[in-house]
Amino acid sequence: MENLKNKVALITGGSKGIGLGIAEAMMAEGMRVAITSRSQNAANEAVDELFKIGSGEALGISADVRDYEAQMQAVKIVLDKWGQLDVLIANAGVGHFASIEELTPEQWDATIDTNLTGVFYSIKAAVDALKASEGYIITVASLAGTNFFAKGSAYNASKFGLVGFTQAVMLDLRDYGIKTTTIMPGSVATYFNGHTPNEADGWKIQPEDLGQITIDLLKMHPRTLPSKVEVRPSQPGKK
Known about the structure:
This protein is α/β, with parallel strands linked by helices. The protein contains 6 helices and 7 strands; from the N terminus they run E-H-E-H-E-H-E-H-E-H-E-H-E. Strand 5 (about 135-140), helix 5 (about 155-175) and strand 6 form a beta-alpha-beta unit. The radius of gyration is 17 Å and the shape is globular. The termini are far apart.
């Protein structure tokens, strides 16, 4: 996709953090961008910000990735408005971190249902539209998809699963001309897990950095596919 102007993207969890950073980069390229959030108000507020950035178009949709019908409806809204879907960014995610002794079944379910099943729902809902456009799927995993850590059983399970799932999807869909990549960031300055970005986060990956990586992937020559991209801060934070 050397020329991204007027290409259509759907970004789950796009109202803040990584999803919004990717949306901003796409708007700067003149793309048409739909973002989803569980809150319509949050989606609308993010869209207002996006319209200040570039020459693209933006749309906010209320949709929970844990609800397959909601994902089907989100894709329908995008197709009804713009007639195509070229890019799916499966970004929505949550994190619950606790020892297996303390982790609750509800926390486990929320993590797996959002980070893994939610991506399955998003891709399943979009696959026919992406076949028609020979589009691009990008899932946002984590370095926690290959590196386990204490109190990370639910999060590790979801992200290890997401990395493997995405790679299998890549093999399933490449014969249709669909490219599939998983991006695996390390520490990112976002609102994830109740954190509020601040000046001390300067050493971390910034959402706009992942936006730049996304644009670079979309513009890469179609003969080449970086199927898994690991991203780390250049320097660790000072303790």
